[in-house]
Design goal:
Blueprint (H helix, E strand, L loop, with lengths): L1 E5 H9 L6 H18 L2 E6 L8 E5 L2 E5 L6 H11 L5 E4 L3 H9 L3 E3 L1 H13 L4 E4 L2 E3 L8 H11 L17 H17 L1
Parallel strand pairs: 1-2, 1-5, 2-4, 5-6
Antiparallel strand pairs: 3-4, 7-8
């Protein structure tokens, strides 16, 4: 599976800031490289800007990094990538409504940035989301890492009584897509 990531959209949501330094960007790229290696997914991450007027590509630890250039935006590059590769197994990672709609029109699935980062963070800490019923998972919602506490919380989550609305998958998947392609989307999410 190809994970096409809207780079700054992901980073800015995780750090809750619009100021992204080159060091922070490098940290995220390294983190995604580790995720890619463990999960065997191809990652293409797209950032705004760059040193050239048009998109430029670099490879780093099995990740393709595309800088949009100063004449285009990352959104334009992502839309073009989606159009040119619509026949491939792609999952778009972005919370940008326009990009998610573009992907949907091309029958390409998408996941919101923070939801995807939850899977990256779970893999990094060694805590795998635990199934509680059907295809619903319980996963860590904090970025802090305390393995003992995480294991305790995951163990205890199996004994929590859930209400019916706790089993909705809509937090992971756009409701509209769930109705049309639920099996296909759930299969991709399970790969994460």
């Amino acid at each position: 599976m190809i994970l096409l990531i809207d780079g700054y959209n992901l980073i800015k949501q995780v750090i809750k800031s619009t100021d992204v330094s080159p060091d922070i960007r490098s940290k995220f790229i390294n983190e995604l490289a580790g995720y890619s290696k463990k999960k065997n997914h191809k990652i293409v991450i797209v950032f705004d800007g760059g040193d050239f007027p048009f998109p430029s590509l670099e490879e780093y630890n099995n990740i393709q990094i595309i800088y949009s250039g100063y004449k285009d935006s990352a959104d334009t590059v992502i839309k073009d990538y989606l159009s040119e590769n619509s026949s491939k197994d792609i999952l778009l990672v972005s919370s940008d409504r326009e990009l998610r709609d573009c992907a949907s029109k091309l029958n390409i699935d998408s996941i919101k940035s923070l939801e995807f980062y939850g899977f990256v963070n779970n893999l990094k800490t060694g805590i795998i989301p635990k199934k509680v019923r059907g295809d619903t998972v319980v996963h860590k919602t904090s970025s802090e890492s305390d393995i003992n506490l995480d294991e305790l919380m995951m163990g205890a989550s199996g004994r929590i009584y859930f209400k019916e609305e706790d089993f909705e998958v809509k937090n992971l998947i756009d409701d509209r897509k769930l109705e049309n392609n639920s099996k296909k989307i759930l299969k991709k999410i399970k790969k994460l």
